Amino acid sequence: MLFGVAQSAFKSLRQTTPRVRVYLYNKNAYSTQIEYKPIRSVLVANRGEIAIRVFRACTELGIKSVAIYSEQDKMHMHRQKADESYLVGKGLPPVEAYLNIPEIIRVCKENDVDAVHPGYGFLSERSDFAQAVIDAGLRFIGPAPKVVQQMGDKVAARIAAIEAGVPIVPGTDGPVTTKAEAVEFCKKHGLPVIFKAAYGGGGRGMRVVRKMDEVEEMFERASSEAKAAFGNGAMFIEKFIERPRHIEVQLLGDKAGNVVHLYERDCSVQRRHQKVVEIAPAPRLPKEVRDQMTTAAVRLAKHVGYENAGTVEFLCDESGNFYFIEVNARLQVEHTVTEEITGIDLVQSQIRVAEGMTLPELGYTQDKIKSRGYAIQCRVTTEDPANDFQPSTGRLEVFRSGEGMGIRLDSASAFAGAIISPYYDSLLVKIISHASDLQSSASKMNRALREFRIRGVKTNIPFLLNVLENQKFLHGVLDTYFIDEHPQLFKFRVSQNRAQKLLNYLGEVLVNGPQTPLATSLKPAEVKPNIPTVPLVTEPPKGLRHILTTQGPAAFAKEVRSRKNLLLMDTTFRDAHQSLLATRVRSHDLLNISPFVANKFNNLYALENWGGATFDVALRFLHECPWERLEDMRKRIPNIPFQMLLRGANAVGYTNYPDNVVYKFCELAVQTGMDIFRVFDSLNYLPNLILGMEAAGKAGGVVEAAISYTGDVSDPSRTKYDLKYYTNLADELVKAGTHVLSIKDMAGLLKPQAARLLISAIRDRHPDVPIHIHTHDTSGAGVASMLACAEAGADVVDVAVDSMSGMTSQPSMGAIVASLQDTPLDTKFQLSDISEYSAYWEQTRTLYAPFECTTTMKSGNADVYMNEIPGGQYTNLQFQAFSLGLGDFFEDVKKAYREANLLLGDIIKVTPSSKVVGDLAQFMVQNKLTANEVLDKAEELSFPKSVVEFLQGSIGIPHGGFPEPLRSRVLKDMPRIEGRPGENLPPLDFDKLKKELKESHPHVSERDVMSAALYPAVTEDYLHFREAYGPVDKLDTRIFLTGPKVGEEFEVNLEKGKTLSLKTLAMAEDLTPNGEREVFFEMNGQLRSVLIRDKEAVKELHIHPKASKSNKNEVGAPMPGTVIDIRVKEGDKVEKGQPLVVLSAMKMEMVVQAPKAGVVKKLEISNGMKLEGDDLLMTVE
Hints:
One of its GO terms (cellular component) is cytosol. This protein is of the alpha/beta class. The chain folds into eight domains: 41-141, Rossmann fold; 171-239, Dna Ligase, domain 1, CATH 3.30.1490; 245-488, CATH 3.30.470.20; 498-526 and 1032-1098, CATH 3.10.600.10; 555-709 and 727-856, Aldolase class I (TIM Barrel), CATH 3.20.20; 864-971, Conserved carboxylase domain (Cyclin A, domain 1, Orthogonal Bundle); 990-1026, Arc Repressor Mutant, subunit A (Orthogonal Bundle); 1104-1180, CATH 2.40.50.100. It starts with a helix and ends with a strand.
């Protein structure tokens, strides 16, 4: 309390009692008369964090603070922190506003300002500004104008250093303004040399040149940067010292000629000559070198009559020799670390010296200034270290800082909602740590950086963390090559940024609608399915997978065959929803029920949960990784074998792939958790089938070779696919080494009587091979057929849980279980468990109302025995017919399907051959063609691509050969494929594919590469989506599909122990100038908002186009900025790497190079145009 009163009295005294002292001191530039005159108000001729730093010192001293701001800074925090703030430079470019000396002086005179603090950068080293301040009757908080001029002139500073006996580096005698002068110096003194801005510092306009052919270009770029930053492009050139440390000595002088040093700072950790991390004192600096360096600095300062705060910079080589670089006649960005180790407030000291106080009066004599511990400063900048530190601008969506003991933060506009503009320096916040030793200080800094959460713009925090964890840094082994020689500093842990990405996704859905196409206008139900409970912290009971993992595939098959009861495979996780819900069931809902399945259905033969269409749909429509789905299901269901559907040589695609792709796919599938591979071919073409079998077997999986069933073996008139055809095929597959033999009845054509005939015949020929039957219940006879199969000797049949069974899905699990209770084939499953399982899916199914097959299909239909449409295709065809406006003609489509099948030779119909028949059927209905008309007009019709490729032999050779004369008429002289389609395909170069993917997606995994090998374009789109919107698979299904309602509260479980609590608050009605709407959320109790471009609204606005990331011909702006030089024109031929455009942002210039060779087709930019990141620059084809 007493201290507070005393401090208040001191402030009052300052404001009312001027004092005058006279010193008879006449040496150098020091005054002979020193007047102590309190300063009542200070204007800071600067912006950002340094302005706020000075304002804080003023407030502590009881001095009024005055800010200036440009039009672009009207929302900036520094103007709000001052007691008063005034606009300057109206109508001027952003930087020039702060360089307008007459206007700054006018603001001072009009508002009773006593003194001006220049901060750093801008006018801080301009002697004409210091003189203008003094000529206006104001005090300049800094050195005298003469000293500012002398020290700002690199040549004069060198001369002063020589006169003071301070060692220097060879360099030009004066500023250099032309390329010719630069070339001449380089020829005379040799390379390497360094170009420096003659009238400014901070790394701006600085370039190291090692090759003569780079001199002119480097000089031009450096001079241009210097002019933009300091208003003068003149350069200073000096010999470049290899492997130096950059060490600077902090000085403080008064008007009476007293000069002290506040020890040194090591600023060697630099990038592009910009300091990144600073340490005080310099680690591992010998005491004798420190003493010599500080003595030399003080001697130079006294020689030139230096007063106020300043820094003398040196280069120190490995031998301890040091060379004068320059004097910074101002406060440095890194002054903070000196303050921490000495306890001296440099800014307050600057003001007090400007008032007339002497260093002894302030208690600052050299013997009293001690260094305590180690301090580190890290400059957090809005730059993307993973993208060559390109400036990142935009809005801070999230800002949460790191704090705590030993941490100091100096910042400006670092808060959620702040706009980071491209007009000024990229510095966001300075973090300063202080501890007893270097390692402890680094540990505190590391912890603080990890606490930061900054979203909306990229920052260099990942890079800073790598620096702080580098062993050389931690031991103080530093030089200016530190960053260049440690490429591992640029290997970053990926910042997941999951929460903000999910908010962007939710905002996108709310503004622009569903991000996956909805098949109907129906909406997902507002229901949260009840998940049955399971025992906590207990392992699920063992199942057949235990035999497989401990004894291998052969033992597994033997165990299956030895079982006397009927085994079941549950298709609910794949084929059931593929048939009923367009394959749209998400991992989220599958994983919710997985623990219950593991605990209650451990005696399943397998759970079919992967492959087929699920792979494509997961990537294309659900925006989730199919590999992660498999991995996550395996973690929750460790005890039940998993089965997938493998399309032989087509893997899980719709075309033939090189053999090594199929082998690699199976290998990766087994590694991720797959057990059983049901291998089939859409034409029962043995070469394709056997390739898939070999790939699955080599990977270590159970091979379940499948015979695709069509026709009717119980009908003697159906001779193409008779009993002998199937038994011969079975013989071939057993001979090829299948572990299990499967009958794949994809259309539900296997009638009970045919089932008895077929299964009995195969069982008689192969008594030791397990037989597994798959069917669809389209006709309604599925349960009867599966019971007939079981009685005839089948070991396993496919079922789906009751609420996901029937129609085009599989027969009912409950019905088959109940039918076999208390018989020798009893499945041993409990109906009560099936009921709970079914109840979950009954509720969950309502979430997928937009894809519900019952929208168009109300019941099963026995006409499938005539049209033979596969179950999964039946509902898809129905949806397609409705989407094409043929809903009323679906009966015609079914009839045409039958005709198309016969036209094509009565082929096996399963993906992809079923698509060929379906495409031809719809083609016939749309064009009102009969089968005869198709045949007659075949030479003139434009057939669907799939039909043409089938006839060419792209998916294999059908049983009985290709249909003639249709094939010849359609193909005419087109090429034909003989034999296995993929046999002659060259192996895929996975390393090359990975390298290509990494160019756009640096963090791709082996799984991503595999997905891209199968679905290149789909995977590319998925990767872009994932990078933009994060793990959308964690969202509840209704929210994923149609978004949350305004006011709705919901949770998102990102992982164990990490849950987001979200609430949708509002969506702005007004658009921003860029056509964006702001969507507001509450996340974990904090307000968050995202800006989403309204795709409909922007059609009426003129918005600069963005470069499409998936279009390699489009060249986008790598960073926001202004176009300052266009080096090509439309029609120019360019080579890869050729400079196209020069952009400028945050005082940094960047040359955009051609990503490939080609011709400039269209330019989308002009000089002076301001661009955002990814704005389209040009098209190169």
